[in-house]
Amino acid sequence: MTTAIWWIRRDLRLSDNQSLHSALSQADTVIPVYILDPHLLERNASRRHQFLFRNLQILSERLEKMGCPLVLRQGKPIVELSRLKEECGASIITAEADFSSYARQRDQEVKSELNLELVNGLLIYPPGAAVKADGTPYTVFTPFYNTWLALPLPNDPLPIPDHLPAYPPLSSEALPPSNEIDGFPAGEEQAQRRLDDFLQFSVGDYHNQRDRVDLDGTSLLSPYLRFGLLSPRSAYAQMRPFLDNPQTHDGASKWLNELVWREFYFNIMAAFPFVLHGAFREAMRDIPWRSSPQDLHAWQSGHTGYPLVDAGMRQLAQTGWMHNRARMITASFLTKDLLINWQEGEAWFMQQLLDGDPASNNGGWQWTAGTGTDAAPYFRVFNPVTQSRKFDPQGEYIRTWLPELAAVPDAFIHEPWKMPSELQVKAGVQIGRDYPAPIVDHGFARQRALAAYKK
């Protein structure tokens, strides 16, 4: 009788789990194990940890019902896997490949001592599948996208196994306590339900509504993809029919574009791991950033005086999620208006975001800062007022997250500092006391940023 360890990491699901199926195909007994790695848990990301623990609880309950309970261990993976291998006599360990510097170093250490098999599953296609004709990686999105689209369709998603074989009792630690996260109910079934609702009701108009921060025009699937509650291959398979329907093609195509951006950033991280530690573009590594703890704190807490920027930052603080358009606007404000190093923002987002992922977070920040691979031109500086008028025209998003501005008239909701004093009294908000005046003049800040970048 052969035994395999199914090492669960970022694949907290039973459907289309290639690592699980690989273990089942090679062994009579499969032991599901999750290792609480102190290196990953020491980071200050309590909301993300809560989401992880809650999803582990749900997965554990499902495995328990199948007669194959989850084994939870805590410690350095190489140590805990070696111990477990000795306890159960496993001949192979299967796991879903990950591509951050730490994940690759960790897996190489395990591979050097134990029989570890890494399979794809985190992405639709593994890094290196879409490359230039000479085999080198793309650093610009559009040609990567075109090559990616031309790849043969991936295999069909794998079903949930009918059953999992029982195994002799093994010691397991108790799961840490956890709570549900508002707006993002945990569990693989919830992820699938959210995908179903998006494809049924929203995907057809996704290209028109995705940038409106005041509308529910996005899929809200990013936390579920982050933790592998939804297989990207399965999501791709389920949305492909909508590409063939003329009524939904444009929206589905735009959503596919977003999935491929995720694949692109993972490819960049895998090919150029140094991007996690500094600018990709050598010419942009010596920008004379400002050091201003006061301005940084104002940005982090949502008190810059620019309503859409502040609304985005407060949504992030309260929910652990932020609309993608708001992410771009707040990132542009930090790097261009405040001229503060994008790495400060990257670190803050990773601390706060429920869907915080090193590849996508780094890629998005370097795109906005103009320091990355496929970056926005350095001279592109989002005007926070213009963006606010365009993507939150009636100020509904602003009023949701900035209740002190709830009674401000539409004419001043994007620039409340221009509101006459008598209207401030009527709206119950005094600018400079109840809500801050702008901490920087955008026109001045834009010229300052352009001068700094030109150096």
UniProtKB/TrEMBL annotation:
Keyword terms: Chromophore, FAD, Flavoprotein, Lyase
Annotated TM spans: none
Recorded catalytic activity of this chain's protein: cyclobutadipyrimidine (in DNA) = 2 pyrimidine residues (in DNA)
Domain of life: Bacteria
Details of cofactor binding: Binds 1 FAD per subunit.
Domain Photolyase/cryptochrome alpha/beta, chain residue ranges per copy: 2-124
One GO biological process term: response to light stimulus
Residues involved in FAD binding: 206, 218-222, 255, 258-265, 355-357
Residues the record marks as site: Electron transfer via tryptophanyl radical: W289, W342, W365
Cofactor list: (6R)-5,10-methylene-5,6,7,8-tetrahydrofolate; FAD
Record's signal peptide: none
Family affiliation: Belongs to the DNA photolyase family.
Protein name, per record: Deoxyribodipyrimidine photo-lyase
Organism: Pelolinea submarina
